[in-house]
Specification:
By secondary structure, this protein is α/β, with parallel strands linked by helices. Among the domains are: 146 residues, MoaB/Mog-like domain (Molybdenum Cofactor Biosythetic Enzyme, Chain A, 3-Layer(aba) Sandwich); 49 residues, Molybdopterin biosynthesis moea protein, domain 2 (Alpha-Beta Complex); 88 residues, Molybdopterin biosynthesis moeA protein, domain 3. It is 16% helix and 25% strand. It has 7 helices and 28 strands. The strands form 8 sheets. Strands 16-13-17-21-20-18 form a 6-stranded mixed β-sheet, with helices on both faces. The chain is elongated and about 90 Å long.
Length: 470
């Protein structure tokens, strides 16, 4: 049996098992490459700091002045000349007259006369002539005179200008996804706005006459719609701004106008349902096939074999048509849509992190397809337990999963104790912002986007040049 710990991104042609035969399906990494080849990063825009969190920096942020910009006290205490405190101790304190007080924010010019002390607050500017601060805890806290009970060296409790960053030093590098601490750094550098690639706006639609809104009565033959809620939440988790559209009925004549209406507010469209291979009610596939810019393919994976991807409108807005089964839709999102959201922000780091873990139970997989089986990863990420209920419709089991167990195309079974590659599912948006790139071929295949189709088939949309501004 082939070692399942082998790189799950290796295409079937490189499978080490000589008995493996290609199925003619599109390999997962080839489909990923096709998608990324067609994605164009959103143009940079200037945003105020309050709106920039989660965006990707499109410029370096540098220090225009030294940080801090002046010498200041790091503690409440007394500014002194360190040489004046020679021999000071608990039993033999040095007493100095206090000439004035400097509060944080005072902008006056203060000078220390040798042999005196100045009361000073945390963050206040160090007076000229002083070279140290004595914490108030090492004194009697005097107002007119202060008894100092310890020697201090020059520089004690002093924050020197430029001690944090020198003028001109790069504080945040281009390509950083801005987190709260980055916002603080930019603000500390005096920046009110930054040049960023904004968070993509994602619109999610679910199609199907069998779907009912959660909270409404359920009749036989109907199910409560969950996909659009799940995928919109996953898009937000991946760093996008996501909007969920109401359920779209199985009406080919209505699907395309509905999608067109969303182009004004979308940087990326996602549909779920209506793309199976050969069904009579594949309304999404029927509506989009006429455009020529959306391609439907069978990808060598389980769940999620039927996939569709392309672009819509003059701005070539990417659209993903995901399968209707909820597990298929979720796995497809993590493998294909998440990296595309990153690419819209000019980042190729939005792949799920991969670990190698020991299986605690056996599992099976169909030959010729790469399986992504749901499992629970141990806290130390050393073991993974396959979940029962691996059907693509079994959403309850999906809710318990913390990982996807990857079984290569040439492997049909794994046993307890075998090693497997595992994709770690994000539990919060923080888990994926800087996650390492999932394995792909070292030199992915060169794939060119499909040539633009006759756009007359898609009604023109008046799209403002500033549509990507937030």
């Amino acid at each position: 049996m082939t070692d399942p710990a082998a790189n799950p991104g290796v295409p079937p042609a490189q499978a080490p098992d000589p008995g493996f035969a290609s199925t003619g399906l599109v390999p997962v990494e080839v489909y990923q490459s096709q998608i990324l080849a067609a994605i164009r990063a959103l143009p940079p825009t200037q945003l105020y700091l309050a709106d920039a969190e989660g965006c990707v920096l499109a410029e370096d942020v540098t220090a225009g002045v030294p940080l801090p910009s002046f010498d200041n006290s790091s503690m409440d205490g007394y500014a002194v000349l360190a040489a004046d405190l020679k021999g000071a101790s608990e039993h033999s304190p040095v007493t100095l007259p206090v000439t004035t007080e400097i509060a944080a924010g005072d902008t006056g010019a203060f000078a220390l006369v040798p042999g005196t002390a100045i009361r000073i607050m945390t963050g206040a500017q160090l007076p000229s002539g002083a070279d140290a601060v004595v914490p108030v805890e090492q004194t009697d806290g005097g107002i007119a005179r202060v008894a100092i009970r310890a020697e201090v060296g020059a520089g004690n409790a002093v924050r020197y200008a430029g001690g944090d960053a020198a003028q001109g030093e790069t504080l945040i590098v281009k390509g950083t996804r801005l987190k709260p601490m980055h916002i603080a750094v930019a603000a500390s550098a005096g920046r009110a706005r930054v040049l960023v690639r904004p968070r993509p706006r994602v619109v999610v639609l679910a199609t199907g006459n069998e779907l009912a809104e959660p909270g409404t009565p359920l009749v036989p033959g109907r199910i409560w719609e969950s996909n659009s809620y799940m995928i919109a939440a996953a898009a937000r988790e991946a760093g996008a701004i996501a909007f969920r559209h109401a359920i779209v009925p199985d009406d080919p004549a209505g699907v395309l106008p509905t999608l067109e209406e969303q182009l004004l507010r979308a940087d990326l469209l996602i549909t779920t349902g209506g793309v199976s291979m050969g069904g009579e009610h594949d309304v999404v596939k029927a509506a989009l096939s006429q455009l020529g810019t959306v391609t439907f393919q069978k990808v060598a994976m389980q769940p999620g074999m039927p996939q569709g991807f392309g672009t819509l409108g003059e701005d070539r807005i990417p659209i993903f048509t995901l399968p209707g089964n909820p597990v298929s839709a979720y796995v497809s999102f993590q493998l294909f849509v998440r990296p595309a959201i990153g690419a819209l922000q000019d980042q190729l780091t939005q792949f799920l992190p991969t670990v190698s873990a020991t299986l605690t139970g056996p599992l099976r997989s169909p030959a010729g397809r790469r399986s992504f089986l749901r499992g629970v990863l141990s806290e130390d990420k050393a073991q993974v337990t396959p979940l029962s209920g691996q059907g693509s419709h079994q959403i309850a089991a999906l809710g318990r999963a913390t990982a996807l167990i990857v079984v290569p195309e040439w492997v049909v079974s794994l046993g307890e104790g075998d090693k497997a590659h595992v994709l770690v599912l994000p539990l919060s948006s923080a888990d994926i912002c800087q996650s390492p790139r999932a394995p792909l071929p070292v030199q992915p295949p060169t794939v060119h986007p499909a040539a633009p189709a006759d756009r007359s088939k898609l009604r023109p949309q008046a799209r403002s040049a500033s549509r990507r501004s937030r």
